[in-house]
Amino acid sequence: MKSQVNGARRMLRLPALAVTGVMVLGVAACTDNRPESSAGGAGRVPEERDVAPGKPVSQQRLGQLKVGVLGTIPTLDPAKNIGAGLYTHTLGLESLLRIGRDGRLEPWLADTFEQKSPVVHEYRLRRGVKFSDGSPLTSEDVRYSWEYYAGKGSPRGHYYANIAGIATPDERTVRVTLKVPDASWKYTPAMFWSGIFQKKFAQAHKKTFGQPGTLMVATGPWKFDSLNPTSGMELSANPHYWGGKPPIGRISVTSYTEDNSLALALRSGEIDISPSIGAPKGFDATAGKNTVTTVPTCATALMSMPTQTAPWDDVHVRRAVAYAVDRDSVIASTQGRAGAPQRTLISPLVMRTLGSKEQVDKALDSVPGYDHDLGKAKAELSKSKVPHGFSGTFVTSQSAAAPAQVIADQLKKIGVKLKIRSMNDTAWAAAVTGPADKRPVTAFETGACLPDPSFSSVYLGKANTVPGGLNTANYTPPGIDRMIAAGRTTQDPGKRLKIYTALQKRVGEDVPYVPLYAEGAHYASVKYGIAGFDGYTLNMPWALNVVAK
User: Fold this and answer.
1) What's the pTM value of the predicted model, to 2 decimals?
2) I need a labelling partner for 163 at 20 to 30 A (CA). Which of 137, 252, 406, 454 fits?
3) pLDDT of 339 over the 90 cut
4) How many other β-carbons are positioned within 10 Å of the β-carbon of residue 328?
5) Model confidence pLDDT, tens digit, residues 447-476
6) Cα(397)–Cα(400) distance, rounded to whole angstroms?
7) Which residues contact 73 (CB under 8 A, 6 or more apart)?
8) Computed from CA positions of residues 190, 191, 194, 198, in that sequence, does the dihedral angle turn out positive or negative?
């Protein structure tokens, strides 16, 4: 029943950014792409987290919370965690800021923050914050953590590539100076790839940091007690937590192979809650009616084609595939994970941070779209170097096999025969973010939507073709890096709207990706709800928001 698969919200959940002068869009505004929604249980779960930073939503005390996740947790190293680790690390690992329900940045480990200039951001640490060993948090811990993420070979390095320097003028002040103005930086200190850990401990355990037996020391409500990469992890209340006594004494995390095992565990009481659901409809049917809660996000699921590998290097092949994909059928195969069909790399809802709905809709009218049309698909393929079709491989994670199979079946109708190669999520992630010239055809959910269009630039450009980078399509045409840079460095929203419209038009013409659907976020429980649950909740110590139904 326990697993070595890594992660349910599998697909490369990583992501993005913003700067001053830009309107802020929250998850609450994402109703245009709303997935089917359900609220588990009869009790009312608060729609918002309305308590102070660090405080629990409920005063109810629990001796233990049993959490189930899809996939294993191979390491606690926050620069390397993927899959199931994304749902569990943030129970003990905190960031300086968090994203509130309205999309606005809010204090967390930092109680004040300010953009001093187009390139300087300053953060003032909260007084009295201690690590789980009782030692105080200082600005040096923040600097060390962020420089660790930025280090050579780090999968998180691209989020920090624009930093010119991090200064620590005193123990509570962190000053980040960017190389150039960057609309992608603003949200970084609120995301899971910015969590702060103790410098002293990390330096003392460089070779084994994050591994079982070593673990790590952080500031969160729960401290890390043990890790078994094949079965799960244990956490207990941090006696030095700055927010007061944590409401849950112990959190036990158990890994499961697939949804059915996880759903049966929830039904039997083996676990209390799961923040990682693969197929909500099937899960709900197995675990019991109304166990799953779904909320909309602004993220876009994508099919990726390696643009520099034959025959995928032929744009007519990629356009043929785009026309052949029937999004409605793909959505049906996700069993409730997906929302509405999506036809652009960047969600129109995210583009609305740069202009009104009318302005954005008018701008996006110029972006090429590919509605399902087998006639047009066959016509495009006839213009290619492989007019009669070809065979290949579609690499997929085990948890995404159903949508991949639907896509493969659709492509057979135009003579493109793809054999599904399913692998566990750890192996899958390594394959699709490995050497750029070996990246395969795949599909994934992008996860972690943020209220700025620069979010999606991580799937484009030369910088993101390094091992671990998210340009799974190896898409590096002339001029694309300049467009990405212009989108981030430009401050005026109207000018940025033009830049990102042009970027999407270029991507639409070249088709490195086929946008599939707007994503949803989910959790499941019979007894508990997560107050204010949205696409950003799991970036923080989310168990502080657990309430009885």
Assistant:
1) 0.77
2) 137
3) no
4) 11
5) 766 778 987 888 999 989 998 889 999 999
6) 5
7) 6, 81, 83, 84, 85, 88, 227, 229, 232, 233, 253, 255
8) positive
